[in-house]
Amino acid sequence: MTQQIDPLALAGAKPKGKRPYFLEDTDAERVMAITMAVAQELAVMRERLDTVERLLESKGISQDDIESFVPTPEQADQRGEWTQEYLARIMRIYQQEIEALDQPNEPSSEEIGHELAES
Fold first, then answer.
1. Residue 28, phi then psi, degrees to nearest 5
2. Does the global pTM surpass 0.90?
3. In a 10 Å sphere around its CB, with 0-12 CB exposed, 13-18 middle and 19+ buried, how is residue 19 labelled?
């Protein structure tokens, strides 16, 4: 039997240790993390969309066909699920910070790195 994968849970997965911060202002760090997550998602999506549109055009499906597409209710539900997973990925910094409140004594990634370097 195969194990079910929960993409929402995986979207918030974090490495061991406290999150390292590189900017003095943690709010700026959060905005930067979200912006970079969105940029990464957008870059991947743009490449995939370009590939699909080129393949469709070679098969005779035009840009007008794409623009006039209306999803079925099932397809709309699938898009909604994807949106929830996407939002979980780009907002993961907040989820991880909330989870870190439960483990205030957890060492930071930087501290773990120093320990590994010394051993």
1. -65, -35
2. no
3. middle
